[in-house]
Structure to design on (400 residues):
């Protein structure tokens, strides 16, 4: 019997229990087909039932009954029946307890990604209760849902940082295949309802349905997603997730710091020969050169000493001869322009400005030229980046 077949059979027993069938009757059938069962198979069966639409509240109520199916205590310890293999995975008070224990420890670690996700859920939960009261009174429920808009940030972080890593790193596809879709549906419905304030009254049933879905998603996160992540992700994974979370807006006012991650030094994996390693990843020289040449902009970099260091390749409206590389940028401009260029660079070097955008017409094309101060993480000036973009297509698109 394959693992998938075993899980399907386990699901059938759990469904029978859910329908109210006698525990001993189901246990006898179970014993005919199984000598033992791995706790991970039980958890997979329960998670599958939830994905198929079994109310999460029903699964929660049945956890102890499910556990009783696979683990039977007797007054005489020698007669106890234990059908759960891998004793370190036994769950005595619900089939997710081991995952819960690990998840709870991380959730209680200030600033840990699971701590942040959990606190966001707590804040969202309070808004849900507020919305329930408003819906019951049929007063101000639109405004109550308006306060939930930050759930899109919460869902975006899940979608970018948790689901893909579960699937790519550990082959756990359930959350990414199902929960991610539900996230998108919830966000889309919330956006639709909030964009039709005038129809809020006639949409009250949709608001109620949406509220239920949001509440169920919180339960699925806390009982399935977070515990799954907790038992699979390593500390380095969490540190990486924590640092990536900084790229997202704060949701529901939750902004905690994880001291251990803040102090952790960036550790690269074993470096590959001939790869260029950057803070955002790595590429070989051919890939890096091709990527820079594929960007739909003319790129010029002038270092802090005003020396031309780099031009990307391709057809240009603002010509940049390769002979100009390693020359002072001032020698590339006529005297009347040198003063302007020098003023821009001086403003960048002294921190008075960070960018200077210029729109111009050249050879019948509309160009957007942006001069950008390049600084390191300490704010030190490293040079000036010039980006020249042909915006004629945008002009035609918007003006016809």
């Amino acid at each position: 019997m394959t693992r998938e077949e075993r899980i399907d059979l386990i699901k059938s027993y759990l469904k029978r229990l859910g329908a109210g069938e006698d525990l001993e009757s189901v246990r006898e059938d179970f014993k005919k087909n199984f000598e033992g069962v791995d706790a991970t198979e039980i958890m997979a069966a329960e998670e599958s039932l939830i994905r198929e639409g079994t109310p999460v509240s029903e699964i929660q109520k049945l956890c102890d009954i499910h556990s009783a199916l696979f683990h039977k205590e007797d007054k005489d310890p020698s007669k106890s029946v234990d059908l759960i293999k891998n004793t370190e995975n036994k769950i005595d008070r619900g089939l997710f307890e081991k995952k819960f224990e690990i998840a709870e420890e991380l959730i209680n670690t200030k600033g840990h990604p699971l701590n942040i996700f959990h606190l966001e859920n707590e804040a969202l939960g309070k808004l849900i209760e507020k919305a329930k009261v408003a819906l019951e009174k049929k007063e101000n429920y639109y405004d109550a849902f308006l306060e939930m808009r930050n759930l899109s940030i919460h869902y975006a972080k899940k979608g970018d940082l948790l689901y893909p890593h579960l699937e790519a790193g550990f082959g756990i596809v359930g959350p990414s295949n199902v929960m991610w879709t539900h996230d998108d549906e919830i966000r889309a419905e919330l956006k639709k309802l909030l964009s039709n304030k005038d129809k809020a009254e006639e949409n009250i049933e949709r608001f109620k349905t949406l509220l239920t879905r949001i509440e169920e998603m919180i339960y699925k996160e806390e009982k399935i997603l977070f515990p799954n992540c907790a038992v699979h992700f390593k500390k380095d994974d969490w540190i990486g997730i924590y640092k990536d979370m900084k790229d997202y807006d704060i949701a529901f006012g939750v902004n905690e710091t994880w001291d251990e991650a803040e102090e952790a030094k960036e550790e690269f994996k074993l470096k590959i020969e001939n790869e260029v390693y950057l803070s955002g990843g790595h590429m070989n020289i051919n890939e890096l050169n091709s990527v820079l040449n594929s960007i739909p902009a003319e790129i010029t970099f002038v270092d802090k000493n005003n020396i031309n260091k780099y031009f990307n390749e391709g057809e240009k409206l603002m010509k940049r001869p390769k002979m100009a590389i390693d020359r002072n940028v001032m020698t590339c401009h006529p005297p009347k322009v040198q003063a302007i260029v020098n003023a821009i660079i001086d403003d960048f070097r002294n921190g008075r400005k960070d960018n200077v955008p210029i729109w111009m017409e050249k050879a019948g094309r509309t160009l957007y030229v942006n001069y950008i101060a390049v600084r390191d993480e300490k704010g030190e000036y490293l040079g000036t980046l010039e980006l020249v973009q042909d915006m004629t297509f945008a002009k035609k698109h918007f003006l016809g």
Observations:
- The first helix runs from residue 3 to 18.
- The longest strand covers residues 365-375.
- The chain has three domains: 3-75+88-260, 267-296, 297-399.
- Residues 267-296 form one domain.
